[in-house]
Amino acid sequence: MSTLVIDTIQGKTTAGSINVRGEGSNNTNLQQGLIKAWANFNSTGTLSIRASVNIASITDNNVGHYTANFTNSMSDANYTPNGSGQNSANTAIGLTFNPNTLAASTLEMNFRNESAESRDGAITTITTNGDLA
Q1: What was the pLDDT predicted at 1?
Q2: What single string gives the DSSP state of each residue in 91-125?
């Protein structure tokens, strides 16, 4: 097994190329724009995290209402959370993700069904984009 440790990755500059910021090169800061935290969890019954990155734990506050606790905090509360959920394992009905409170160390959220009722999900996922502290 090998470990690669580097400080900087820089894209190759090509004359005349334009990146998404329009700066005339394709250099990209790979740290910005990457997902900084994500989780896939089952929130029906006893909440269980199937897999995650940078999520220390998820607290079950009530039906459809959770708090994700980041392992490494975000730089501030101005990050972009996203989420999705499936109402139950045997239905294609999705759940709506509603971020409630964004803090550097936690993300409080609620999932609702098509009738706007808070609902636990058989498959619930969240991702967070932004900068780490």
Answers
A1: 77
A2: ---EEEEEEEEE-SSEEEEEEE-TTS-B---SEEE
Supply 86's token pair. 């499936």
Cβ atoms within 10 Å of 11's Cβ, excluding its own: 13
Question: What predicted TM-score, i.e. pTM, was given to this entire model?
Answer: 0.75
Q: Higher model confidence: residue 109 or residue 95? A: 109
Terminal alpha carbon distance of the chain: 30
Instruction: Report d(CA 79, CA 86) in Å as an integer.
Output: 24
Q: Are 126 and 82 in contact (CB under 8 A)?
A: yes
Residue 10, CA atoms < 13 Å, CB-side half-sphere: 6
Residues in a beta bridge with 97: 111
| Structural contact between residues 83 and 124, judged by C-beta atoms closer than 8 angstroms | yes
39 SS3 class: strand
